[in-house]
Write a structure and sequence with these properties.
By secondary structure, the protein is α/β, with parallel strands linked by helices. It is built from ten helices and 17 strands. The strands form three sheets. It has a nine-stranded mixed β-sheet. It binds nicotinamide-adenine-dinucleotide.
């Protein structure tokens, strides 16, 4: 069986998730399309890099990502660093002929994302952006229902991503609150996942009308390189610095196929943890998904008898997309790890079979165009179109 050597850049939260996916993928998907070998992990922080190698099962570690890009034995460069590093690493990796998976958002800006797309397309390598939530089996099941016409013509998409880890003003100013590192705030961090789901399930977004707020304008300066996602609170008289990104986004959406919709994204919604939801209304039925109950898809169909019509719950299991590879009984529990395992499987399959994988850098780029339009609309108070900038390369 073929082996593909992985060089992973970044040993934080996503470093853990991607390492688990490489280890777990052949355990679930057997025979595996290829076995990923965890060759080198890189972190600018030496201590973290050494620890990541031991903990996440890599053969070696380094503190400069160029070591991985220049290593001829590396097949896959996996970018799991903060957003400001994605473009430089991905473009160098493409030039070195490596297949690339990058965490989301693809970059900080549309311009960076476009350069990444161009470099990967020119090099002819496989490229993927890690919007893993679409790989939750219940989301894939929603896609199946839509493609089969089970809910008819889509009229409305209502998506939310609500969290509360930054609702406390004492949650530190991690890289996620700094434009020069993150690019944008809740929009790029979590709103982009909803945009990915909306494009995947409904179609291209052509026009937006947004509102952006920054509720907490300054936060205690963070210590250490890794984002603690609000789990470490500062108290007392600590140094604070300005937040220069959005805390919350609300936007209306128009789709290419005539559907309309809305998106809300905030990390300041007390009581909401990973409340990533969509409700889709078609002219023959509705679908509802909430990641906090990720084994379940709620469905309602117009042709159900009048006295039985209403949402019912389907628990995903072996009968559903990717389900046969996962666990033998519905509702044993799909986790975040499984979405990353399916993602790794689909990326590695595309490399081995020389097929396209989605979402790729084109999708990542389009999502940046849509984010720009949302922020432009929030500042102008006008609807903004997103279609003029559709590139030739897909
Ligand atoms: N798909 C998802 O659900 C999801 C969830 C969380 C984060 N993310 C994305 O993953 C990426 C990483 O986020 P995270 O939560 O893992 O961050 P993190 O802060 O937990 O970890 C980032 C790591 O990268 C290291 N690093 C920073 N600059 C580096 C460089 N130049 N070279 C090598 N290492 C470097 C840091 O030392 C740190 O260990 C971001 O783009 C983020 O948006 C995606």
């Amino acid at each position: 069986m073929r082996t593909l050597n992985v060089g992973m850049i970044g040993g934080g939260f996503m470093g853990k998730a991607h390492s688990l996916a490489y280890a777990g993928m052949p355990m679930f998907f057997w025979p595996a399309p290829a076995v990923p070998f965890r060759k080198t992990v890189v972190d600018i922080n030496d201590e973290l890099a050494r620890e990541a190698a031991a903990r996440y099962g890599f053969e070696s570690w380094a503190s400069d990502w160029r070591k991985v890009v220049e290593d001829p034995s590396i097949d896959i460069v996996d970018i799991v660093t903060p957003n400001h590093t994605h473009a430089e690493i991905a473009i160098a990796a493409a030039k070195a002929g490596k297949h690339i998976i990058s965490e989301k958002p693809l970059a900080r800006t549309t311009e960076e994302a476009k350069r990444m797309l161009d470099a990967a397309s020119e090099a002819g390598v496989k490229h993927m952006v890690a919007f893993n939530y679409r790989r939750t089996p219940a989301v894939s099941l929603a896609k199946k229902y839509i493609e089969e016409g089970a809910i008819g013509r889509i009229l409305n998409f209502r998506g939310t991503y609500l969290q509360d880890w930054s609702a406390d003003p004492n949650a530190p100013l991690s890289w996620r609150f700094r434009r020069e590192v993150a690019g944008s705030g809740a929009l790029g961090d979590i709103g982009t996942h909803v945009i990915d789901l909306a494009r995947y399930l409904v179609g291209e977004i052509t026009e937006v009308m947004g509102i952006a707020n920054t509720w907490i304008p300054e936060r205690p300066v963070s210590s250490g390189p890794v984002d603690k996602l609000g789990t470490v609170k500062s108290s007392g008289d600590v140094k604070k610095a300005a937040v220069d990104v959005d805390d919350e986004i609300n936007t209306l959406l128009r789709f290419e196929n005539g559907a309309v919709g809305s998106l809300e994204a905030t990390r300041n919604a007390w009581g909401r943890n990973n409340f990533l939801t969509f409700e889709i209304h078609g002219d023959k039925g509705s679908l509802y998904f909430n990641y906090e109950r990720r084994d379940e898809l709620q469905v309602c169909f117009s042709d159900d008898p009048d006295d039985r019509r209403g949402f019912r719950t389907i628990y995903t299991g072996p009968a559903h997309p990717n389900g046969a590879a996962l666990w033998p009984i519905p509702a044993l529990g799909i986790g975040y790890g499984e979405t990353k395992i399916i993602e790794a499987h689909d990326f590695i399959s595309a490399i081995v079979q020389d097929t396209e994988v989605s979402p790729n850098f084109y999708d990542g780029y389009r999502i940046h165009v849509i984010c720009d339009a949302i922020l432009e609309s929030a500042s102008s108070g006008q609807w903004v179109k997103t279609v003029e900038q559709l590139p030739a390369a897909r």
